[in-house]
Model the fold of this input.
Amino acid sequence: MKLSNRVLNRTLLARQHLLERSALTVAEMCDHLIGLQAQDVPPPFTGLWSRIADFDPETISAGLDGRSLVRITLMRGTIHLVTPPDALRIAPHIQPELEKAPFRKGFNFGAMVGLDPDEVRAHGEAVLGDEPMSAADMRAEAARLYPDRDAGAVLQTWLYQLPVLQTPPRGKWKNNSRPIWSRVQPWLGAPLDAGYPLAELLVRYLRAFGPASTADMQTWSKLTGIKPALDTLGDRLRTYTDDGGRTLYDLADAELADPDLPAPVRLLGWYDNAVLAHQDRTRIVPQGQGTPLRAFATAVAPVLLDGYVAGLYKVFPKGPAARLRITPNREWSAAERRDVEAEAHALLAFTEGDKEPSVEILEPGEDLRV
Done:
């Protein structure tokens, strides 16, 4: 059976809870989405606000303090906000590739080449121990132990090897303080769970992002062995093809969305996995317009209009005011502009409720920078 791009779009939005806001709790949504991208502090708050009705940002803060939520390096080597069970069972799949990366020539211009990985790890374990430690203090120890190496590269190597997670206060509502790191087991009081099957992780990926190709799953996770893992699922899966003839896998009991479903305006956080979790992103990024990954690095985030990325936005808080500027990727109708403006004001009320809001929609392609 062939699936149109529109079916894939509406199915992704439905599974991402972007067609209507959900009654799921924060923890339930984190589990369903297999974490939210949290390389920076604001995006998971915006991502959950866009998906959960009456979302209270203090829920994340309380979860981080109470250790029912954690910020940990997982898919694609980036920080994700997840529940402790996912931290413990997904990390063993990610760690092997993370640990290899620092000793390759491409890592920080070969800064770690020639060092013994086991010795570097042992030094890192001795430095970090069982108590949280700031990145600055770890870097100072790296400079002491390896005076002829880039201390920042040594620090990053430790953060890949140990494994570790970020502890609060960083990641709490409006708290962008510098990272403090802890090894996973002392913080969560449990060891990593190496017995979680990759196949079950892929089942969960399909529930949140499917139907999808093996290349999509690899892009999302950066894991190998995808196809053999899928083969173990047998009749739990069914297959489709897309407009380009690629094979797409999905769960046999998963529903496809009606392509005619209306899709409300949504403003996502930068690097939201709804946009990044497929190799072929045309189901959400219109063909020919590219994916603005470089822009995301400057806190520029996507606007979804009729279910597709139709523009970019950025919030500029300054003193008593907060400006939200938007640049469309195409011409918008008057009705589309009104809908986007309304959602933008709602987002400002959420993120900058104590400031005087203003929303500015620019011309297509116009520079967002002030």
